[in-house]
């Protein structure tokens, strides 16, 4: 997979899952809904395929620099024909360098080689990712089929004090009357 994409100096694409701490940090720092470490562990364990990008700063001569996880993307799938692309995220300070593109290229290449013909490959596209997904061939499914979610149940499942990311926060405030959440 390394040969498939070219990354700027210091970056490395790795196939597999990062640890739950890095996963949770990357989600929250890139503006996705924060998750607990326990949720992160379960999410990673249930992943069908994942890749992530590390960055190692240039050696400054004084100390050995360690690699940081700065980007990721994963596929949740049944291995047969249902696949959901999720957690496409790059830390803000590493965006616009082609990392998101490299992650999508790697993920789709894996699907091309491993998923059977007729596989149903979907994602929910938050605004920051839409151009990236379109560049990789994704199109809107509406009106033939529209994405639906049960926000009220999800809201109840949040841990006390757990914040919503900007996109989900926006959806909740637009879509839901708080009284309807309490009622479920
Ligand atoms: C969506 C996301 C993953 C894209 O990551 P990224 O690493 O910035 O993606 P890329 O660098 O491949 O592409 C982003 C843009 O930078 C441009 N770009 C790529 N390399 C570049 C470079 N060296 N110099 C300048 N621009 C560059 C691309 O052409 C692209 O431009 P466009 O937006 O006008 O089409 C990132 O914005 C993100 O993490 N957002 C927050 C989390 C999120 O909402 N994720 C989507 C969930 S559905």
UniProtKB/TrEMBL annotation:
<dbReference type="InterPro" id="IPR053144">
    <property type="entry name" value="Acetyltransferase_Butenolide"/>
</dbReference>
<feature type="domain" description="N-acetyltransferase">
    <location>
        <begin position="24"/>
        <end position="159"/>
    </location>
</feature>
<dbReference type="InterPro" id="IPR000182">
    <property type="entry name" value="GNAT_dom"/>
</dbReference>
<dbReference type="Pfam" id="PF13508">
    <property type="entry name" value="Acetyltransf_7"/>
</dbReference>
<dbReference type="InterPro" id="IPR016181">
    <property type="entry name" value="Acyl_CoA_acyltransferase"/>
</dbReference>
<dbReference type="GO" id="GO:0006048">
    <property type="term" value="P:UDP-N-acetylglucosamine biosynthetic process"/>
</dbReference>
<dbReference type="GO" id="GO:0016747">
    <property type="term" value="F:acyltransferase activity, transferring groups other than amino-acyl groups"/>
</dbReference>
<protein>
    <recommendedName>
        <fullName>N-acetyltransferase domain-containing protein</fullName>
    </recommendedName>
</protein>
């Amino acid at each position: 997979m390394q040969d498939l994409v070219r990354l700027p100096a210091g970056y490395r694409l790795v196939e597999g899952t990062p640890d739950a701490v890095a996963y949770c940090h990357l989600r929250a720092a890139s503006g996705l809904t924060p998750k607990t470490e326990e949720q992160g562990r379960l999410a990673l364990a249930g992943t069908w395929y994942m890749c992530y990008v590390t960055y190692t700063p240039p050696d400054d001569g004084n100390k050995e620099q360690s690699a940081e996880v700065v980007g990721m993307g994963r596929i949740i799938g049944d291995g047969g024909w249902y696949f959901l692309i999720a957690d496409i995220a790059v830390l803000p300070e590493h965006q616009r360098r082609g990392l998101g593109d490299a992650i999508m290229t790697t993920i789709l290449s894996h699907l091309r080689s491993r998923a059977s013909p007729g596989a149903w490959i979907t994602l929910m596209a938050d605004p920051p990712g839409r151009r990236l997904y379109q560049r990789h061939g994704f199109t809107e499914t509406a009106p033939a089929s529209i994405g639906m979610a049960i926000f009220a149940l999800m809201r109840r499942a949040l841990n006390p004090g757990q914040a919503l990311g900007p996109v989900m926060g926006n959806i909740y405030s637009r879509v839901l009357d708080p009284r309807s959440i309490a009622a479920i």
